[in-house]
Amino acid sequence: MTAREASHAGSWYTDDGPTLSRQLQSWLDQVPNPIDGVGEIPKPGARVIIAPHAGYSYSGPAAAWAYKSLDLSKWLHPCSSIPIPPKSTNSSTPSKRIFLLGPSHHLYLPNCALPPASTTKYATPLGPLALDTTTLSSLRATTQFSPLPLPADEAEHSLEMHLPYIAHLLSLSSPSPETPPPLLTPILVGSTSPSAERAYGALLAPYLRDEANVFIVSSDFCHWGLRFDYTYYLPSSSPSAEGGISLSAKQHKHRPPTDPPIHASIAKVDRMCMDAVESGRHDAFLDVLKRTGNTVCGRHPIGVVMAAMEALAGEGRFRFVRYERSGEVQGVGESSVSYASAFAVL
Fold first, then answer.
1. Do 282 and 303 contact (CB within 8 A), yes or no?
2. How far apart are CA 223 and CA 326, in angstroms?
3. 22: number of Cβ within 10 Å
4. What does DSSP assign to residue 90?
5. Who contacts 35 (Cβ-Cβ below 8 Å, separation ≥6)?
6. Model's pTM, two decimal places?
7. Least confident of 71-80, 238-247, 257-266
8. 14-to-5, 26, 56, 61, 171 alpha-carbon distances in Å
9. Are 188 and 109 in contact (CB under 8 A)?
10. b/e per residue, 174-201, with b = 16+ CB within 10 A?
11. How many CA atoms lie within 13 A of 218 on its CB side?
């Protein structure tokens, strides 16, 4: 049996366990409660989140907004230090599984992939997370998933960057022998077609319906700049997303547009995508991505989970609680990555 190493520890985030735990908790403590326009968090039944996966110095604080919004009441033992949301109870069926879906940045996949049966744990500086070998075996038996080789898994960061948050929250939940901690089901999502996303959504819908399961979707939002080959700009005068242009260094280096500033255009395009996600309509999300070309790297895992929600007769809608960017782009030679956090109640 093999454990996936925490290959990005020591570079993308600290590899010192106590330091990491304090850092994560400090970001969680900084999330206001209530949140303006949302109210008290977590909401009962908020067991699906979208959170970013960049290095913690960039996206760790933004991700805390999603994890603070997650209803963990079914994870808890009575002596837990995690607050239970109003009208929730920890006496019903305990959480069984944590599904973690992230995009593939390095390995080309036309479908989704699962760790091999030989991988039974994912290591973190806070201790290992056990995989749900039974659920993974059932998913493999559908023949709809490719194998995820361990070297490719360890090269990928979209799943790993969520593991410390999961491990930290589990460490606070004080599980008892009668209530073992939930097991992890990681799924790497490739460049899936709309029909494939609907098919995977239908396959995962029964797991999503089960109130004992948690779903975590890993995604950053817009990657803007010449280095990302994406410089889409939407002028204030444009009535729709189709009115945007691609900025070039040759044409706009010395006279960057200012109506609006580039960073405001980025925010507007991201907001269009976030609105589409909040609509609960998978097709609406695909449409805005097509019209803007927005480089939402987790668009496929988001699409799979949106399709699963639609397969459940539209149960659940995402609500975004945080939006940040790594920088405020003014000129064409600059770049930024956007980070957004959301939750959904089912």
1. yes
2. 10
3. 13
4. S
5. 41, 65, 321
6. 0.93
7. 71-80
8. 14, 14, 9, 14, 18
9. yes
10. bbeeebebbbbbbbbbbebeeebbbbbb
11. 27
pLDDT, tens only, 43-99 = 999 999 999 999 999 999 999 999 999 998 876 544 444 555 555 544 455 558 999
Which H or E run includes 163?
Answer: helix 163-172
**How far, in Å, CA of 156 to CA of 104, rounded?**
7
What six digits make up the tokens of 223? Answer: 């990657």
Helix, strand or coil, per DSSP, at residue 252: helix
- Can you tell me which residue has the tokens 């850092």? 23
Residue type, 10: G
Token digits of residue 174: 């004080």
C-alpha dihedral sign at 222, 224, 227, 230: positive
Per the rule left: phi > 0, alpha: psi between -120 and 50, beta: everything else, 313 is: left
Structure tokens at 92: 């019903």
Residue 329 DSSP symbol: -
Q: Does residue 344 register a pLDDT over 60?
A: yes
